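Researcher: I'm comparing several assemblies side by side, and this is the next one on my list. It has 345 residues spread over two chains. Same procedure as the others: predict the full complex and return the structure.
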Amino acid sequence: MLIQHLLSGDEKSSFIEPASDKDFTLLTEHRYFFDWKVYKHTSGAYVLRLEEGPDILGVMTLIPDNDEQRIEVELLSSSRENTGRHKVYDRIPGCLLAFACYQCFLDHREEACVSLVPKTLLRQHYKTKYGMVDRGPRVALEGPALMAIINQYLFKHGKTTKEETEAG
Amino acid sequence: MGKQRKKKLKPDERYWELHVMPVRLSRKVDYESRDAIWKWRIENRERSQADSLLEFKMNYLRWQVAHYLKDNVLRQKLTFGHFLNEYIHRLGRDKRALADEISIPLEKLEGLLNDRILPDEDIFHRLAVHSNDLIKADQWHKMIDGRKRVKYSNDSRLLELARAAVQNPIGIRPWGK
C-alpha cells in the first residue's frame, strides 16, 4: 500500500504487520499518544511502517467479534509528526482502517463489518471520508463502502502486507 | 505544608491526537449501539438476497439470547414463550409447520408459546437441534424462571432422540464458530 509524502508528493510503499515485542519498546506515549505497552501481550495490535525503514508511522488495535462478524477498531494513531496540519505523510489512518476492513473481509467475506467509536470532532470526517454510518456512539462500515475502502487504500496502488510484498 | 495541586488531564486532552481514542461505553450504551448496527445490517440485507437476510436475523436472535442470559437475571416479559415466538417469527414459519418439524402436537406448541405449558428437557433438545445449535438446549432451559424450571441434563441419549424426532432443521450456521 502506498502513503503519500506531502512535501514532495512522492508515494512511498508501506506495509502493516502485527506489532512485535520490539515494536512496543518504540511505541512511546510521547510519539504515539498512548501507552501502547498495555497491548504487549495481546494479539490485536498492528503497526504501519515504510518498506525503506523500520520507523513506525501508525499503530492500531483491533477487537474481532466473530459472533457479530465485526471488527472494532479500538485505538488508532499516527506518529506525532504525521498528525495535524503539518504532517509528513498522508493516508496513514486510511491505510490502517482499510487493513482492518481487509482482515474482517478475509474472515467474513460479504458479511464483514468494521466499527469504531470516533471522537466527536472526527465523527463527520469518518462519515464523509470513509462512508461510515452513524449507529449510536459508534460509526460502522460494511458492504460496498467497506470494499471501496479496501480498494482505495490497499489495492489501488500497491500490496497489503509485507509477506505479500515479498512474495510478489 | 501547602497543598500541591496536580492538574489532572481529562482523557479527551490526553488522547487528543489519537484518531480513535480508548472509550469505555456503559453496558447499556454499548448494547444499544451494537443493536443498532445489527438492525442497520439487516436493513441492508433486506435490499439484497433473502438467504443472507435470514442468516442475519437468526444470528441476531442468537446474539440477543446470549446477551440476555449472560447475567442470569430474567425479565418478566422475556419468557421462554417470547423467544420461541421470536424464533418462529424470524424464521418466517407458521406454528403448524414448526410443530410438525419438531414432532409435537400443535396444541402443545401453542401452550409453550403462551407460557401455559412448561417445556421439558426433550423440548429443549428438539429446539436446539431444529435451530442447528443457534440457540443451545441449555439456553432454552435458562429462559425459564428457576423456581419453575425442570431439571436439565446434557444427556446424549436425549439428544439422539431429539435428532431422530426433528425434521427439516434450519441450515443456518451460527456465527463465531
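Model: For your comparison table: The CA atoms of residues 68 and 75 of chain B lie 9 Å apart.
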